[in-house]
Amino acid sequence: MSDSLLGNFTMERDAIRECDPSTPITTNLMGTYKGLDYFRWAKEMDIVSWDNYPSFDTPWSMTAMNHDLMRSLKGKPFMLMEQTPSQQNWQPYNSLKKPGQMRAQSYQAIAHGADTIQFFQLRRSVGGCEKFHGAVVDHDNSEENRVFKEVSQVGEILDKIKEIKGSMKQSKVAIIYDWENDWALKDAQGFGKESRRYPQTLQSHYKYFWDKNISVDVVTPQQDLSKYSLVVAPMMYMMTEETMDRFRDYVKNGGVLVGSYLSGLVNETDLTYLGGWPKTLQETYGIDAKEIDTLYPKDKNSIKFGNESFEVVDYCTIIEAKEAEVLAKYEEDFYKNTPAITKNNLEKGKAYFIGARTNQEFLSKFYDE
Question: Quick one: residue 157, left, alpha or beta (phi over 0 = left, psi -120 to 50 = alpha)?
Answer without folding.
Answer: alpha
